[in-house]
Amino acid sequence: MRAARPKQLTTILVAALMVVASCASDVGDPDAADNSSTTTSPSTTAAGTSDAAESSTTTGAPTTTADADAPTGEAVEGGETVEDPYYPTIGNTGYDVVNYELALQVQVEGNDVMNATATIDLTPLENLSRLSFDLVGMTVDAVTVDGAEAAFEQTAEKLRIFPKSPLQSGTPTVVVVDYSGNPDTIESGTRIGPIGWYDAVRASVAVGEPMGARTWFPVNDHPTDKATYRFVLNVPTGFVGVANGELVETVELDDGTISVWEMRQPMASYLATVAIGAFTLLDSEDGAGVDVYDAVATNELDGFEGDFGQTAAMLEVFTDLFGPYPFDEYGALVVDAEFGFALETQGRSLFSGQLVDGDGSIERIVAHELAHQWFGNHVSPATWRDIWLNEGFASYAEDLWIEFGRDGSPAQLELRLQTRAVNAASPAPGDPGGANLFAPSVYRRGAATMHALRLTVGDDVFFPLLREWVVRFGGGTASTEDFIALSEELSGMELDDFFAEWLSDGPIPEFR
Ligand code: TRP
Ligand code: ZN
Description:
- By secondary structure, the chain is α+β, with helices and mostly antiparallel strands.
- It folds into three domains: 1-28 and 52-246, tricorn interacting facor f3 domain (Immunoglobulin-like, Sandwich), CATH 2.60.40; 278-373, Zincin-like (2-Layer Sandwich), CATH 3.30.2010; 379-502, Neutral Protease Domain 2 (Neutral Protease, domain 2), CATH 1.10.390.
- The protein contains twelve helices and 26 strands.
- It has helices at residues 9-25, 31-35, 50-57, 301-308, 311-322, 363-372, 388-405, 410-423, 440-457, 459-473, 480-491, 496-502, and strands at 64-65, 75-77, 95-107, 113-124, 128-134, 139-145, 148-149, 151-154, 158-162, 173-181, 185-187, 194-199, 203-207, 227-236, 240-243, 246-252, 256-267, 274-277, 279-287, 290-297, 329-330, 332-335, 342-343, 349-352, 379-381, 476-478.
- Helix 5 (311-322) crosses helix 7.
- The model is unreliable at 2-70 (pLDDT under 50).
- Zinc ion (ZN) binds next to helix 6 and helix 7.
């Protein structure tokens, strides 16, 4: 599902030229480096006619092909970038994904073996002679388009599909990709370290942000193409599969279990998760009418209540401040894995077991990931340059939880915000650069920016502004410019200079 307007042909041409440019100069995604030796030769295809190989040699040259078979005129090749300012190789244009159904059979071993089928419902936005998805490290075995076998090829970062006849703009289309391999992590190029599919002997988990979803399924891997998801997880006896959304079905097999999970609200690909391990599923205390179901690594159960017991109360405070919780249910997913972070996976936030010790010391992190469900997940960044809209908002929400849920002293909270921002003043949260996507300044100066805005426009504007932001952009994406415009609209103030100063890397301004 795409909030943005369909791209014009000229945009696609520019996009295609950018792909050529970025290949030639070898800029772009650092992940490419790992695989580049295997990249350029197309690996095609039982299904393939020789068309595929021929098409591949024209990649990046003419971007339109008049197709004699096309009933409704000229078809174009889908673009292979959405021109994200930080990650120029991710995302693809020419279509809008509506739903991903991911049927994954996983042998959980030292090096997981996955056999998978992705059924991708999409709407073409152009007549397409060719389209692509992001996919790294997995091997595609077969592709069909509306039931007909299609030729395909893989590069280090893309799966290119050549349908027998062009896709028709606006006509719902089903692409089925059979693929397999050993899903793995890739470098994120940020201080978060590796992202993608983590495997360990007793647990496996997918962590996507910012562009690791492509390590385990073919995906339009950019927040601008949100979709609903259905996960069909086939895991061996002794393991439990967990994913985003609601558990709708469980089937016991002789040698394992199939569980089916549905995320029915549009989700950005970086928020998709699957975890396979020894989990206990808990029906926890509801909050603000939201059902809470947690999936907890069984060896972390002892500390769980001590660290997550405030979730219902947090739901009450945040729904008061931000508006209704945007998804069908909430919960935590605590995994026995070594990445050491938490990630706001949609509807069920992911926490490394390393964080859990039962003494309540991660209360701020628990609040942070919950707040992301509104800020980041329901309203997602238009580009990765807009990351402070995620991390600054969620970090400030920690303070709002302390203020409204814990009767925190406003003066003390303010001092803390100020001190932390001064100690993490740069890089500029409004444009930190890809390597600094998760730099402390994005979180801390971002949070202080929110507090400064509150003091500037007053509570009577600030809190309605948060709710209007969620109403207006929920289900889609929004940019820093959108936030400035809405702030100006609701306050009647001129705020360009305010945001320019706060979101820069200059000295931290006084709050008043
Ligand atoms: N968004 C996470 C947070 O809440 C940070 C993060 C980004 C992350 N990418 C990740 C955590 C990958 C774990 C894995 O601040
Ligand atoms: Zn965060």
